[in-house]
Amino acid sequence: MKKLVVAIFGLCLAVHVWAAEGEWTTDLAKAQAKAKEEKKMVLADFTGSDWCPPCKALHKNVFSSKEFQEYAKKNLVLVEVDFPRAKQQSEQLKNANRALAEKHKIEAYPTVIVFDSNGKELRKNAGYGGQSAKDFIAELDKLKKS
After folding, report:
1. What's the CATH code of the domain at 52?
2. Domain limits at 121?
3. Is 17 exposed, middle or buried (0-12, 13-18, 19+ CB in 10 A)?
4. Tens digit of pLDDT for each residue in 8-34?
5. Considering its fold, how many domains does the chain have in total?
6. Which regions of the chain are under pLDDT 50?
7. How far is CA 92 from CA 3, 14, 57, 96, in A?
């Protein structure tokens, strides 16, 4: 019984964290279609979510911030292209992620690519140097205006 309570608590916590961090999808093609329909940019985060320290820092300092989440709701369709070591993924998702990484020549994690609503690559940044959510959003706004 104790294990069941702990499992339920963990599930509730995971759902809460997911809801608090905005809506991320794993399908770039669907995200692109949604972005075109809603006239938004697509932000694709190529990450090693459970092992990469800079990936974890980017998520904690930028993507999990309230400021970024509010900006994203209005301006972005978010895509996570994850390459975890411990987290389970379907073979289909692993294959799709590998194909995207090859197509976009991903050489380091994290790499963030921003696309316009038509799928044109606007910016590709590898690594994370510790910038704040405010600075990250300012860069996105520059891309949006161009």
Report:
1. 3.40.30.10
2. 23-145
3. exposed
4. 444 444 433 434 456 999 999 999 999
5. 1
6. 1, 3-20
7. 31, 23, 27, 6
